[in-house]
Amino acid sequence: MTSMQRRNLLLTAAAWPIAANTFAAELRHTDAPARVVMAGAADLLVIDSHSAAAAKLVDMSRHIGTPLRTIDGDVTSLWFNTLALSWPRGELRTLEGLTSPRALFCLELLAGDHRLRVVRRETVAPGLVHWRIEPRAPT
To answer: Which of 62, 71, 77, 132 would be 120's cystine partner, CB 3.0–4.6 Å?
Structure first.
């Protein structure tokens, strides 16, 4: 890892708590679910664009610098264009997202084939789940 990559990683990790607190405060003011907390550095954010809360997160995430992919309720494009190419090479191992339970179900099944698992799953509003996928611990 180069010093520039290390610097970007540290800056991203430091920015997450600030963005999460700002996002949660913004959600409280708009009567949307306020329990969303994006914690820790992720390799990729996955946001379902159907939700108003998710749309706010998309706007905020642009300032953090973590790669972002939006879906429209369907993970097919995300799978074929990003994950199916990256996961076999050991890239994008940590994902965090705000999607429908159906989208998470599909991602969880696909992740299992690549020794990844859902480590956090929290319903933040009807039809909206905050989740995190990470590598399984070595056994």
So the answer is: 132
Give residue 74's Cα distance to chain centre: 15
Quick count: other Cβ atoms within 10 Å of Cβ 104? Answer: 22
**Phi, then psi, of 55 in degrees rounded to 5:** -60, -40
Q: Rounded to whole angstroms, how far apart are CA atoms 60 and 77?
A: 23
Contact present, 13 and 6 (Cβ < 8 Å): no
DSSP H or E run through 111: helix 101-112
pLDDT tens profile 17-61: 555 554 444 444 443 333 344 445 788 989 888 777 666 776 666
The 3-class secondary structure across 31-77, one letter per residue, is CCCCCCCCCCCCCEEEEECCCHHHHHHHHHHCCCCCCEEEECCCCHH
The pLDDT tens digits of the residues spanning 65-90 come to 778 898 988 999 999 999 999 999 98
